[in-house]
Every structure is written in C-alpha cells, then in structure tokens.
Write the structure tokens for this entry.
Amino acid sequence: MNSSGCFVALAALITLVGCDQHDMPSQPSSATRSQPSDAPPASVAAFNEGAITLDELFLQVNASEFSFGGLYYRPDGKLEIALADTLRRPQAVAVARRLLGAMPGLNDNVDVRKVDYTFQQLSDWRALLQSRAEWMRLVRTDDVDELENRLRVGVIDDASVAYLRRALTAAGVPSKALTVVVAPRLAPSQSIDNRAFSSLVGGASLGHCTIGFTVVSGGLSYFFTNSHCTAFTGSDAGNIGGVNTTLQYYQPDPANGVVGQEAYDPLPSPTLAGCSIGDTCRLSDAAMIRVQNRPISLGDIALTTLNSVTFTGYTRIVGEITLGTSPSPPYLILAAGTQLQKTGRTTGTTAGTIVSSCENRGLGTDPRTGLEVRLLCQHQADFASAGGDSGSPVFVPPNSSGQTYLVGIYHSGGCDPVSGICRAGFSSLSSVRAEFPQFSIKP
C-alpha cells in the first residue's frame, strides 16, 4: 500500500480495494452531482445510436460464417481464428476481411484453432445469465472469452461458484462451456511526475488523476478524465455519473491555477441496451471537463521512458480505433493480444497487451439508487498502473514517426507485488463516443 493507492493479493488474483479519501480533492459534503441546464442532454441513449462493440462485430461475422468462434493475437503476435469447423477457414477469412478490414495477418494462411462453441452460442448463454436478476446479484464480471472458448463468469464468493454453475447447467448451458471463478473488484486507481505543461496534453497529471486526452467540441476546448475522479462519496459505484460543478481541476496542483470544470458526465441508466435486470449501467468511466485558463495541445500525448516517469516528449494522435476497427491502416481491432500503451501521472508510459475484451464489470451498489453499477464492454490489458493513473490515455505503440492511434481511457487496475501480474481496465474510445457529444481528438 502507498499514499496513492492500495491493493491486496487474494487467491492468486489481484484484489484492488478503494483508495483513502485523502487521494481525492476536498469538496463540500453537501456537493450535488447533477446535469446543469446548459449541459448536453443527460440521456446516454442520445449518443448511443449506431455504436457497436467488439462482441457485436464478432456476432456479425458469426451470422455470415456459422463456425466462427472469435479471433485474437497470440503471444507470438500472430493472428488466430477460432472455428468450430476448421475446414471453413477460406469462408471465415473472407467474411472477417469484409467486416473487420485488412487486419495484419488476416489472410488465406492465417492460423485456425478448433473450438467447441461458436461465438453466437456463448453469447446466447451469456444473455441467459443476464436475464436473471437473482443470478446477476452474484456476478462481478461476465465475458465471452474467445481465448478459452468459454463463457467466463466472475462471482463474489466460493458458494456462488457452485450455485451458479449448477443453476446454469440446469438451464441448459453445457458444463464444459462454463468457467466460473471468484473475481475481485478491479477498483479505481487514483506520478507522470508533477510536471506543469504550458498546454494541456494527454497523460499529464491532474492532481489526483490523469488527463486522458484533449478534444474540441462545438468550438470549445475540453479534456477527458475518469468519471470516478470527479467526486468522492465513499463508494466507487457512487462516484460514477453526474456533473459536479464544485470540484476544481489543477495541472498539476493548485499553485498552477484552475484548468477546468466538469461539463458532462451521464448518469448510469437501467435502460441502457445490454444492461442486466437489476443493474444500472454506463458504457465508459469517463467525464468531459471544460478547459479554463490554459490552452490545449490537441492530439498530443506525453511520453516517458517505458516504466518510468522521465518525460521524453510527445506522440501525436493521427487516428483512432472506434466502432470496433480503425477506419484506416493499421486496421486494428481491440482483440485479445493487441499491443497497447498508456501514459499516467504515477507510472508514466507502460506497455502490454489486451487479455480480456468486451467484459461487463460490476462496481458495486450505487448508494443513490440501490442498484449495482455495471460498466458494459470494458477491456483489460496487462500493462502496469498504480494510484493516480486513473484517466490515462490508452493508445497503440507509436510508430517511428511518433504517431499513434487513440484507443481509450484507463480507469482501474494495479500490479500484484508478489506475482508481478498486472491488470488494467479501460473503456474504449468507441464507448466514450457513444456517451458524449461529438468531439474531435486531433487538429
């Protein structure tokens, strides 16, 4: 445990517990979190039309190729397609190229792996799980795991493992298709060192958190950070959603003056598409902050020497990965095995790969509603992070010209001090765009 975050190892999994209140900026206890009258509409659905997740893309492929079970990058960097019928590789490749683009390695000679179930089958069993409120009360995470070709469910305790496995198999889910384990909560992490930037950039210290990326919307300048960085209610779930106009943001500290005020932060909604019965949901742990008193450097992300906080310069955003795929080369999707980096105020620039894609993750009971707050279609990577990194930009490793593609915004994680295993949760840029007014991330 350190002054900026805390975690405990439990049953060989990383358990992250809530950070101390002194990690958060002070604010009146009576502070209210609401949408001001001049803010954009509070409904998530207002910006959700046309959004698509990685799981939805895979289901589209499966609808055209019945044997498709998913695809991912192996540790050796090679793409692999999971198929229930490996003789259908030519058909699967043709469909995947049409729907996913010219991904590196997606060619007629791509490796295939024989699996037991299609992506649609696993998704149907996941929908069955999500349809029962009495089951979902025991669930912390649920994911169609294309690496293991299983429905992976993380639950609150050992008793729930046995109960849920029995209940799902009795409902018709093959026992072999299930992985049910006790899952810790991946709690928010609340330094790059306290460097003051003359213009606001992604990766810069925001005091208790990190600036994700700067944007322009409606001719005005904003930056994104995590929604959970915008208040402290004593509950991780209670920090998600609702504008807090009493909180002032500094870069890097009060001595350098106020740089922003929260402008938009949609409340969780029980009617959001994909939200399980008895839950209230968001697509991203993100908040949009109106910039004050300092210019932005649109499209720039600060870099450090890997695994340090030694500032080395910037990478320039030249594109983004949204709606599942990048619209131009390198045609990446957020599949397991994709290589990524992030820059945060505490651990600087760190690198890793996606280990879980499009996972629904519960944050706990929201004291405002009494409902479980669940983030839909979140991703996990294995890059290092620590307290203060919340809000960090997640991006593709820069090319030789210093250019990158923006991928999303980091929100939670840490590293086990014994095993050294790191887990880092992040929301994709696609999910952020689905919840917020239209914005530009580059000049």
Q: What stands out?
A: The helical segments are 54-64, 89-100, 119-130, 133-136, 158-170, 429-435.
